[in-house]
Amino acid sequence: MNDKIIIQKNELFYILVNLITTKMFFTYPRYMVNNSGNAAWIQCIYVSLIYAIIYTFTLILYKKTSTVNILDASEFIGGKVLKRIVGILLSIILILNIAVTIRALPESIKTVLLPLTPMKLLMISLGIAIALGAYAGLYSLARICSLFMPVAAVVFVFLLLLLIPDYDITNIYPILGKGTYNIFVSGLSSLGIFSDTIILFILLPFFRNYSEMKAASTKALTVGSLISFLIVFIYNLIFSYPASEDFMMPIYQISRLIKIGDFFQRFEAFFEFVWSISIMLYASIYLFVICYIWKEIFDLKYYKELIFPFTVIIISLSYLPSSTVQLSNTGNIISVFTIPLCIFLPAIIALSFRIKNHIINNKKILK
């Protein structure tokens, strides 16, 4: 693998927007509604602001590290041993995250398009698709994202416009839903919307410089937060509480409402096609990053030999839940451990890096 590959600023922007928003098309809106009722949109705004503060602080810490990623910073702090510990920990986090998320695609395809197709066949097909994506490499995935995401944005805008007749402002009352505690305290668990941004701090060597990374990631975080808010808000506008708690895949239910006379009545099938590409790009990036981590921590020459075993592991874990309900419950349990690490580990590593670097510089001055 060529570590000198440079991801352009616009490509980084589209990659991050895809990483942030993909999960919002699965169970996250329902999860937020279960927590805050019809105030889920307020919770979405709140966690976006909280993460913006955390992310700003993390970016400040990385300003002096340039494009040194989490793995290299860990090696500087504690040598190869710490680098491998952090790398294996990151791999476990990413595998658990992606195993839960990608199960949504075959479940929705089976529901919408292929109800008679065995789940095993759908899972194997998905595994082949994401393995091919990871094999193509980060540069190819970045280019595809930069071509696909504008198309997805147009589809999303049409979704918002076509749903206007179904909006009902009374559905968001009472404004505070289940109460301020649910919104501002237990609602912090929804920071998981942004857990995928940890990938940014792993792929730092692929970016030209800190300034471009900061500009693109900040813009992507803003756009991703806005899209997440709009998804939750229209869900609150269309479905009243507590009926909105009943849908496992809210955006699928929303898209089913769109009808234009007798000519266009299956928008959810078209939406399924667009979302399928989005989640396959998402999963391929994840798989590439997992293989890249193992290549780096064990000083391997190539990463492609790792694609097959990690694909088998991810697909096998993803297939374990027997239903969407069990899948959702499994995701909630896993997120208790993975979300805090995804949100705070980059800052902890960068802070430790700067402290040790400061100590070394002081010793040099004293000598």
What do you see in this structure?
Helices cover 71% and strands 0% of the residues. The radius of gyration is 21 Å and the shape is globular. It is mainly α and 367 residues long. The longest helix is centred in the last third of the chain and has 43 residues, at 324-366. Helix 4 (70-102) crosses helix 13 (307-319).
Name the average pLDDT: 86
Uncertain parts = none
Instruction: Give the beta-strand count.
Output: 0
The arrangement of helices and strands along the chain is: HHHHHHHHHHHHHH
The biggest beta sheet is recorded as:
none
Name the structural class. mainly alpha
So how many helices? 14
Q: What is the CA-atom radius of gyration, in angstroms?
A: 21 Å
Q: What is the share of helical residues?
A: over 70%
**Could you tell me how far the N terminus lies from the C terminus, measured between alpha carbons in angstroms?**
41 Å
Principal-axes geometry comes out as globular
Strand content: under 5%
List the helices and strands and how they pair.
Blueprint: H1 9-21, H2 28-36, H3 40-62, H4 70-102, H5 104-112, H6 119-136, H7 138-162, H8 180-184, H9 198-202, H10 210-238, H11 250-255, H12 267-297, H13 307-319, H14 324-366
Any key phrases for this structure?
0% strand; 14 helices; 367 residues; mainly alpha
Short synopsis of the structure:
Helices cover 71% and strands 0% of the residues.
